[in-house]
Each structure stands twice: as C-alpha cells, then as structure tokens.
Amino acid sequence: MSGILSNFVKFIEAYGVVGLAVISFAESSFFPIPPDILLIPMAFMNRKLALFYALITTVSSVLGGAFGYIIGNKLGKPILRRFFKEEKIKKVEGYFAKYGGWAIIIAGFTPIPYKLFTISAGAFGVRMYTLIMASIFGRGGRFFLEGFFIFFLGDKAKYYLQNYFEVFTIGITVFGVIFYYVWKKLKMAGKIKGTGVMAKFKKKYEKLNALVLRYRKYDRAATYFFISIFAALFSLLVFLEFVEDYLTRGNWNFDIKVINYINTIRSTTLNQIFKTITITGSTLFIMVITLVLAVILIRKQQKKEAFLLSFNTVGLCLFNMALKQVFRRPRPLGLRIIKVSGYSFPSGHAMTFMGFSILIIYYLLTGVRKKRPAILASVLIFIYAIFVGISRVYLGVHFLSDVFAGWFAGILWSSTSIVIYKALGYRRSLELEEV
C-alpha cells in the first residue's frame, strides 16, 4: 500500500464507526479500498465491539451495494466499460446468467471486487431483492466471520487472518455451493422440505417493493425522495457520532492540526476572499434569499414549495441555536480575523447554508427540465456550501469538527423536511383517492 493510501486510511480510521461506515458504503459501489483494512484493526482495538463493527460494516456495505445497483441501472454498461475491462464484464455477465444471486454471494464473501458485481447487477437487470439478500449473506458472512475470529480468539486471530483467511473464505464458499446444490436436488426429489424463511423475507420485500412502485406513480421524482431518506439516516448516524465523540473526548486532535496549518497559509488576499464567502453564508443573507425565492414561488402559484423553503430555513436557524445551547462549546482561542460571539458547536454558517443548499438542489433536480444545467448548478451550489464552512475555520472562529457537524446537521434537517413534505403529500393523495 502506498504512502498516500496509508495516510488516507489513517485519516478515515480517525472517525471511528463513521469512517468504517463511509468506506464500507463506498467500496461496494465505486471505491477501491476494502473495508476489512479498517474493520480488523478496529476490532482488535476493542474486541468487545468486534461484532458490532461487523454489523456496521455489513449494513453500510449492503446500502453501498444498492447504490452501486442504481448506478448500473441508470447508466448501464457504458459505466462498466469506463472502469472495467470488457473481458471482466463478459465474465460477470456469464456468472449472473449461470448462477444468479449466488454470483453476488460469492463476490461478497471472497476477495473478488464487489462493486463490479453490484454495478453489473443493475446494468444486467438483476432484481434488487436478489442483490440485497445476496449482499446480506455474502458481505455479512465475510465481515461477521472476521468479527467472530477476533471476538473469540483475540490476538491469536491475527495469524489466521493474515495467512489463511482468504483460503478459508474460498473453502467455505465452495462448500456452501455444494451444500446448496445437494439441498436443492433433495428438495426437488421431495426428500426434504424448506423452512419457508426465504419466502417470508421475499413476501415482506414484495410488499415494500409494491409500496415503492405505488409511490413512484405519485411522484415522478421519487428517486430523490428515496435519496433524501438515505441522506437523512446517514447524516443522523454521522452527527450522533460527532456528538458522542465530543461528549466523551471533548476535542479532536485534527482540529488543532488544521488551525496550525491555516495559520501558515493566511494572506491578505485569502483573508478578503473568505470574509466575502462567510458574509454570503450568514443567517441574514440566507433569510433574505429565502424571502426573495418564497415571493417568486408564490407568484408562480407554488405556495407549498414556498412554505417548505421558509419552514426549512427558519427551522435550520432555530435547530442550530438549540444545539449550540445544548453543547456550549467555546470557540477557538487562536487568532480570529473577524469578531464573533456565541458558542461554536455546530457551526451555524456551515449548518444553515448547507441545509439551505440541499433544498435548493432538490428543487433544481426535480423542477428543471434540462438536467445538465440543473446538475451543474447543483454541484456548484454544493461546492460553495463546502467553502462557506471552510471559511469559518480559516477565519479562526470555528473548529473543523464544528463545521463537519454543521454540514451533517444541515443535511439531516433539510433531508428530513423533504421526506416529511413529500410523505404528507402522498398521504393526502391516497385520502383523496379513497374519497
């Protein structure tokens, strides 16, 4: 592993469970680093939580696999050809045709690149249910096996994991395939009966899938609704991790390192740039923009959208004020370029502007017909929201952890607002249908 890769892993590892969840999610859809390199050392550091870490890794990996499936389903084979050789793609297609979901289980349990199979599953039209169930068995089997090794064997597990684990997983996979083949033949011959567990899972999945399909008929932008649900849940997980860390350790080492680094790069030009950015990210500025946009929406007979925008912005401000009063973290004591008052955690600028940006991005992606300009504008708005947060750290009025917490709290609030708004609208439409 290169020095850059090692440093990146250490950086992610510093975020504990959140870092583990992020890398597990990313590896299943687009990232090259397997989550095992974080799961194993974290489990060794705290053996009692080894199985908990395995659970976090499994859930995040399955969700990441579903995201990879969506990528493949929306972009098709061209996205595969962009990252993988044609020879590998044809092999995977052959595996799906011959083994179905077993191909995903094998890929999840063994060292085979998992993202190739999740994206391919979407591109080749494999059912989402098959992907999810196969991911649970394949990914869960691998990660929980590592967790059990460490939980029960402790330091002795290092030898087996380093020397025999891959051989062990391949052996279990071969045994599992043979067992399933024999079991299936015996079942077809009427010599054994199934337990019906998979049938129950399938029935529940089909009910959920029917609900999703029904909602899609109501909302042409249903994809963004489901993305909002995931964004809200993921942001909640990350924000709670920051809260837990703050309550247990008080401060983070990387906060001091970032402040020391910023002190070495400050200049008159950068000072003016970040002052301007922080002004445009202030609560007053966002309130004014919200008022202007709300008036425009009302004139266009979009009163509900205007209400959501206003509610979202006011809610962000009040939520941030409440959080600051709860945690009461003092601001950094270093050199401040601007004068501020109040508490530090989470950053109000980062939280409010990010939350405001998320809703604007939602409106752009769901309301603008020309997708390319909407996507470009959305990316630019999101990047600017990042810079608003960075400006607070540069100006010396916030720690980087304040900004991180602010970003995720903002995403949490706005994503939840979108979900509630659309869910209430859907419920209202069902009531009208019954009448």
List the topology elements.
Blueprint: H1 3-13, H2 16-27, H3 36-45, H4 50-75, H5 77-83, H6 86-99, H7 101-109, H8 114-123, H9 128-153, H10 157-163, H11 165-188, H12 197-218, H13 222-249, H14 253-265, H15 268-280, H16 283-299, H17 303-327, H18 348-367, H19 371-394, H20 400-434
Helix pairs in contact: 2-4, 3-4, 3-9, 4-8, 4-9, 6-7, 6-8, 7-8, 7-9, 13-20, 15-19, 16-17, 17-18, 17-20, 18-19, 18-20, 19-20
List keywords for this structure.
single chain
Short overview:
By secondary structure, the chain is mostly helical. It is 81% helix and 0% strand.
What would you note in describing this structure?
It is a single chain. The protein starts with a helix and ends with a helix. It has helices spanning 3-13, 16-27, 36-45, 50-75, 77-83, 86-99, 101-109, 114-123, 128-153, 157-163, 165-188, 197-218, 222-249, 253-265, 268-280, 283-299, 303-327, 348-367, 371-394, 400-434. 35% of the residues are buried. Helices cover 81% and strands 0% of the residues. It folds into 2 domains: 3-194, no CATH class; 220-434, no CATH class.
